[in-house]
C-alpha cells in the first residue's frame, strides 16, 4: 500500500485541527488554574479554613513541607480526574456510535456547566460538583480529540498535528498561571472566581468547533456512510487520487465491524504490544512528577520559601517554558522520531530532578526555608529544564503514540483505556502529592527521578519507532519488525488464518 504522499495540508485540515485541539486548551487551563487558586488566601479562607490557618495565621509553626497537606484541598484538584476517568468510557461509546463531532460537543457542554458552578461556588459541595462536571468534559475531550486529529491528518505530518493537542494543554496552563497572577491582585478577595470562570472561554471555542468541523472519513465509513466518507476524504486530502486510502479505510472498517466487543478484543494477543505501551506511557507520564509540579507549582514554590506573588510569577515562567518546548516537539517529532525524543527527554528530566532534590535537601528544612535569591533562581531554572524536556518528549508522545498505533477496530476502546489510565494516575498523584511532599520532603524529587530512569529503560527496549508510517500499515512495518513484539503478532496471525480457513 502507498504512503499517500499526495495528501496535502489543506486549509480544511488546518482549520479542523486548530478547532479540535481547543479540547487541550480546556484541559490545560483546568490543570493550571487549580494550583494558583489553592495558593490564594481568600479562597483558602472561604473553603479550607484549616489550611488558611496553617499557611497565613500560624506561619512557621507547621513543617514547611506539610502546611498544605489537606485531603479536602487535594480532593478539589483531583476530583476532576476521578469523574474524567468514568466519563471516558461513555465517551468511547459516543465516539464510535455517533461520531467524533457530537462527542466534542458534549465535552464542551459539560465544561460550561462545571465552569458556572465553580465560579458561583458558595460552599465546598458546589466547588467539588463543578470540578466533577469539568472532569466529565476532560474525559470526553481527551478521549475524542487525539483520535480525531490522528484520523484527519496525513501520515507524514500526523505527529506534528497531533501534538497541537498537547501544545494547547501547555498554552492553557500558561494562560491559567497568567490569569492567577493578575486575579490574585484584585482587591476584595473574589479574584479566584474570575480565575475559575474564565475556563468558559475555551469551552465555547470547542462547542463552536464541534459545530463547524467536518466528521472524520474513518467515522463516516465506520457508520456505513461511504459516499460521505469518500467526499470528506477528497476534501481533506485536497486530491482526487484517494482511492487507495479510501479502500484501505473501508477494509479496516469491515474488519472493525466483525469485532463485536472492542474492549475484549484489546486483550487479544496481537493487540497486547499497543495496549502495554499505551498504559506504561500514561503511568510514566504521571510518575515523572510533571503534574505535581504543574498542579501545585505556586504551592510548591511557596513551600520552598518563595513569597505569594513570587510563587505565582515562577509558575508563569515554568508555564511559558512548557509552551515553547512543545514547539520543539512539533517541529522535530516527524523528523527525529518518537524514540530519540523520549530518550533525550528522559536523561534531561532525570538530571534536573536529582539536582533539585540536592539543593532543596540542603537548603529547605522543616522550619527554615532559607533559599537565597541565587538558589531560588537556580531552582526555578532547574524546574524549567525539567519542564522543557517533558514538554518535548513524554508530554505529547504519551498521547501521540497510542492514538497512532491502535488498529481501527480497537482504536476507540484503546484511546479510552489510555485516557482512563492517565486520569487514574493523575488522580492518584493529585490526591497524594501534598501528603507525599509532607512525608518525603526533598526526597519527592528523587522518587520521581527514579521513575524517569525506569521509563528510559522501557523506551529503549520496548517502544518501536512509528514516525511517517500510515496507521493501517503499523502491523507489518512496526510490530512484526520488533525483536519482542513480533512474537505476539505472528502467533496471532497464524491463529487468525486458521480461524478464517475453518469458516
TrEMBL record:
User: What are the GO cellular component annotations?
Assistant: membrane
Gene Ontology terms for molecular function: monosaccharide transmembrane transporter activity; symporter activity
In the UniProt record, does the keyword Transmembrane occur?
A: yes
InterPro entries linked to this entry = MFS_dom (IPR020846), MFS_STP/MST-like_plant (IPR044778), MFS_sugar_transport-like (IPR005828), MFS_trans_sf (IPR036259), STP/PLT_plant (IPR045262), Sugar/inositol_transpt (IPR003663), Sugar_transporter_CS (IPR005829)
- Which keywords accompany this UniProt record? Membrane, Sugar transport, Symport, Transmembrane, Transmembrane helix, Transport
Q: Which SUPFAM superfamilies match?
A: MFS general substrate transporter (SSF103473)
Compartment list:
Membrane
Pfam families (UniProt xref): Sugar_tr
Task: Spell out the protein name for this chain.
Answer: Putative major facilitator, sugar transporter, major facilitator superfamily
* Family per record: Belongs to the major facilitator superfamily. Sugar transporter (TC 2.A.1.1) family.
Regions that span the bilayer: none
Q: Which organism is it from?
A: Lupinus albus (White lupine)
rRNA-binding among keywords: no
Membrane protein topology class: Multi-pass membrane protein
Q: What superkingdom does the record give?
A: Eukaryota
Amino acid at each position: 500500500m502507498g504512503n499517500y504522499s499526495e495528501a496535502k495540508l489543506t486549509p480544511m485540515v488546518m482549520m479542523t485541527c486548530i478547532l479540535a485541539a481547543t479540547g487541550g486548551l480546556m484541559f490545560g487551563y483546568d490543570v493550571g488554574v487549580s494550583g494558583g487558586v489553592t495558593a490564594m488566601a481568600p479562597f483558602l479562607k472561604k473553603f479550607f479554613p484549616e489550611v488558611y490557618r496553617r499557611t497565613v495565621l500560624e506561619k512557621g509553626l507547621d513543617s514547611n513541607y506539610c502546611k498544605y497537606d489537606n485531603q479536602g484541598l487535594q480532593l478539589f484538584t483531583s476530583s476532576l480526574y476521578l469523574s474524567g476517568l468514568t466519563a471516558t468510557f461513555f465517551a468511547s461509546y459516543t465516539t464510535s456510535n455517533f461520531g467524533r463531532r457530537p462527542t466534542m460537543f458534549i465535552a464542551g457542554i459539560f465544561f460550561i456547566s462545571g465552569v458556572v458552578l465553580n465560579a458561583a461556588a458558595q460552599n465546598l459541595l458546589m466547588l467539588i460538583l463543578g470540578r466533577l462536571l469539568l472532569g466529565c468534559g476532560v474525559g470526553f475531550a481527551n478521549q475524542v480529540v487525539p483520535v480525531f486529529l490522528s484520523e484527519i491528518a496525513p501520515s507524514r505530518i500526523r505527529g506534528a498535528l497531533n501534538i497541537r493537542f498537547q501544545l494547547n494543554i501547555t498554552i492553557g496552563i500558561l494562560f491559567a498561571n497568567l490569569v492567577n497572577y493578575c486575579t490574585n491582585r484584585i482587591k476584595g478577595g473574589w479574584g479566584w472566581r474570575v480565575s475559575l470562570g474564565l475556563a468558559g472561554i475555551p469551552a465555547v471555542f470547542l462547542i463552536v468547533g464541534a459545530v463547524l468541523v467536518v466528521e472524520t472519513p474513518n467515522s463516516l465509513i465506520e457508520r456505513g456512510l461511504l459516499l460521505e466518507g469518500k467526499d470528506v476524504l477528497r476534501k481533506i486530502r485536497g486530491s482526487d487520487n484517494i482511492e487507495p486510502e479510501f479502500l484501505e479505510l473501508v477494509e479496516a472498517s469491515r474488519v472493525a465491524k466483525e469485532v463485536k466487543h472492542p474492549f475484549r478484543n484489546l486483550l487479544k494477543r496481537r493487540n497486547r504490544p499497543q495496549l502495554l505501551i499505551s498504559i506504561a506511557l500514561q503511568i510514566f507520564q504521571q510518575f515523572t512528577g510533571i503534574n505535581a509540579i504543574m498542579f501545585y507549582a505556586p504551592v510548591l514554590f511557596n513551600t520552598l520559601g518563595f513569597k505569594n506573588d513570587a510563587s505565582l510569577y515562577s509558575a508563569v515562567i515554568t508555564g511559558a517554558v512548557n509552551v515553547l518546548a512543545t514547539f520543539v516537539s512539533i517541529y522535530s517529532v516527524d523528523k527525529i522520531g518518537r524514540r530519540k525524543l523520549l530518550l533525550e527527554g528522559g536523561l534531561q528530566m532525570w538530571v534536573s530532578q536529582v539536582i533539585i532534590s540536592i539543593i532543596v535537601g540542603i537548603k529547605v528544612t522543616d522550619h527554615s526555608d532559607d533559599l537565597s535569591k541565587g538558589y531560588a533562581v537556580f531552582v526555578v531554572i532547574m524546574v524549567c529544564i525539567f519542564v522543557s524536556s517533558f514538554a518535548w518528549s513524554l508530554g505529547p508522545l504519551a498521547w501521540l503514540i497510542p492514538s497512532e498505533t491502535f488498529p481501527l477496530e480497537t482504536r476507540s476502546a484503546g484511546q479510552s483505556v489510555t485516557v482512563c489510565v492517565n486520569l487514574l494516575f493523575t488522580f492518584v498523584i493529585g490526591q497524594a502529592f501534598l501528603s507525599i511532599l509532607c512525608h518525603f520532603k526533598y526526597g519527592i524529587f528523587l522518587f520521581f527521578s527514579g521513575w524517569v530512569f525506569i521509563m528510559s529503560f522501557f523506551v529503549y527496549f520496548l517502544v518501536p519507532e512509528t514516525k511517517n508510517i500510515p496507521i493501517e500499515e503499523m502491523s507489518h512495518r512496526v510490530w512484526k519488525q520488533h525483536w519482542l513484539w513480533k512474537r505476539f503478532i505472528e502467533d496471532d496471525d497464524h491463529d487468525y488464518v486458521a480461524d478464517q480457513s475453518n469458516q
